[in-house]
Amino acid sequence: MIYFATEPHPAGGARNLELGAEIKRRWESYGFDEVIENDYEVLLSLPTEESYIKYGDNTYQPKNNEGSNVIPPYNAFSKNAKVTGPLIYVNYGRVEDLAELVALGVNMTGAIALCRYGKIFRGSKAQNSFEEGMIGMILYSDPADSGTGKGSVYPDGQWLPDTGVQRGNVKSVKGDLSTHLYPSYKGGYHASGEELAAISPKIPVIPIPFNDAKPLHVLVQAGAIPTPANWGNYSLGPSTESVELNVKTNDTLSLCRNIIGVIEGSVEPDRWVLIGVHRDAWIRGASDPVSGMSTVLEISRSLGEQVKSGWRPRRTIIFASWDAEEPGIMGSFEFVEDHMTALKQNAVAYLNMDTAVNNPDLMHMKATPNMASLLYDAASKTASPKPGFGSLYAFAISAEMEHNNKEYTKMPIKLIGSGSDYTAFLNEVGISCIDFAYKPSYGTYPVYHTQFDTYEWVNENGDPEFIYHRQLGEYATRVLMSLANDMLLPMSVVDYAEKIKELTDDLILTNADTLAELDIGISGLYKLAHDFVESAKQFTETLQNTTLTEDDALKVRELNDKLMYIDRQLYIIQDYQADHHFGILFSHQVLPTHMLGQHSWYRG
Q: What is the pLDDT of residues 104-120, one digit of tens each?
């Protein structure tokens, strides 16, 4: 971790390419069959010195106090624009926050939003505000959420100092914006002008430290409208004094280099189990992504030792070091778009790490439902990171009950959707995915995407003895080896079917009045979901009663294909021209409510 987190290594920078070369060298030394540089040319949004906020005689410009190789605070892919208007405090910028402002009679048209980080994706905050007529946004980390309101700040404690600034992109379209829906080859077509603007953020956005947000809250107080409960001790505005916001970024095509390492399978080399982590960081990124990177590298080292002794997995294992995740999940997205046909045919599963360990109160596992039984089994065979629990499985349940004050009979596993390098594998191809992580019980760790996410912070606060890193590596290795080596894939169609049934029942129960009001009937969906459970149980019973040997290669392939293609069979048909997503039966993306009753492309 020290080596990878000592210097800043943002996407597009020389240090990031150096780290890629080091990973390539290591995988080659481990005896991997093939290690390649997988290159694309992507559009990056880089900061300039021209951005500022002006009000009265005051000017704020993003400062860089951490050395010349540290990028100043900015929000990648913000709209480049200069706007002037009154300031309005919008809390977290959620739909419900803006609705409350409307209910209070606050006119947001032509105003600039003062918004605190948290609760939702920063790009959604900007889009929500734009839809209410706002023309710009200023983001900051509120000490009530991640700083002095929680406890001692770093270096005296784990919390964020008032000088901390969270970087991050604000674009909603993942992958390379200039080659949306196709791979970004160097020399190929890259969108620009109006075509690019159509899928880019609509308002200028800039992040600032709380130190510089304080005087802006003083401006807003002139509006004299008190905030609703739980919005903090602030006023809503609008400010009587206008604020000028200017954002200027340098959007440039840049090299995006993934490193791909292959251990070829001995029995089913055309079936691939992939495991990956991104390499780039906004600054040093000791937690995000180096905690995940160092863990995946240790897994690769241990497998490399086995390869040198003559071992081979049954199926091919592919390791990936992804580039340019922070600016918008680019490296993995371009890889998927480039190899989509092969991945649809050959990929068994994708395992992901990112911010793997930081102040680890809770397991934070996310997965497609068919992976649940595998994760339970592996957790029951993995030692607890804390004494007194026996297994990781028991520890995970106990930790959830302690922090959430309710009973759990199983280790919680969240549904996986988007947010890291699994996004394209799941949502573009329909590959089963797992994301491994420990996270704090209070949400995002406080120094996320800031200059304080360093090795020293991790060593003192995130995982002082690196016990959780070591244990998570053991757990992920156990899962990886099962997917790569078991004759029959350890995927449960019953778990998948039960989750679909649970979500369908919940949809009907919680939205009965809305569905009736809109005259949407989903009795067909209800029946299919319940029938799917019975079909899944019958298939699983047949599977358990089937005796197979290595001589039954065709039968094994037939059964495994049914197991590994389940996500692809329940996949989304995407009408990109209309920008709609239509579900077949179960979708990892949100369906527009008005689509629920119009389409019935069900494969039972």
A: 999 999 999 999 999 99
Lowest mean pLDDT among 164-168, 371-375, 391-395, 586-590: 586-590
Cα separation of 603 and 8, whole Å?
Answer: 48
State how far the Cα of 66 lies from the Cα of 594, in Å rounded to an integer: 50
Find where tokens 């420990």 sit. Answer: 438
Nearest to 258 by CA among 376, 103, 424: 424
User: Rounded CA gap, 164 and 448, in Å?
Assistant: 10
Beta-bridged to residue 207, according to DSSP, are 139
Q: What is the DSSP letter of 551?
A: T
Whole-angstrom Cα distance, residue 412 to residue 398?
Answer: 11
Of 93, 100, 150, 149, nearest in space to 120 by CA? 93
Cβ neighbours for 244, distance < 8 A, ≥ 6 positions apart: 52, 53, 54, 55, 82, 83, 84
Q: How far apart are CA 342 and CA 316, in angstroms?
A: 14
pLDDT for 14-51, tens place per residue? Answer: 999 999 999 999 999 999 999 999 999 999 999 999 99
Gap between the Cα atoms of 165 and 422, Å rounded: 27
Interatomic CA distance for residues 265 and 595, integer angstroms: 43
DSSP letters, 448-502, are TTSTT-SHHHIIIII-TT-HHHHHHHHHHHHHHHHHHH-SS----HHHHHHHHHH
| Phi and psi at residue 425, to the nearest 5° | -60, -40
Which three-class secondary structure state does DSSP give residue 512? helix
- Pairing label, strands 268-278, 315-322: parallel
3-state class (DSSP) for residue 284: coil
HSE-CB of 459 using CA atoms within 13 angstroms:
8
β-bridge mates for residue 54, sequence order: 59, 244
517: buried, middle or exposed (CB in 10 Å: 19+, 13-18, 0-12)? exposed
- Is 291:357 a contact under the CB 8 Å cutoff? yes
How far apart are the C-alpha atoms of 414 and 364, rounded to whole Å?
A: 8
Helices and strands (H and E) in the chain: how many: 20, 21
pLDDT mean over 235-247: 95
Q: Is 237 left (phi over 0), alpha (psi -120 to 50) or beta?
A: left
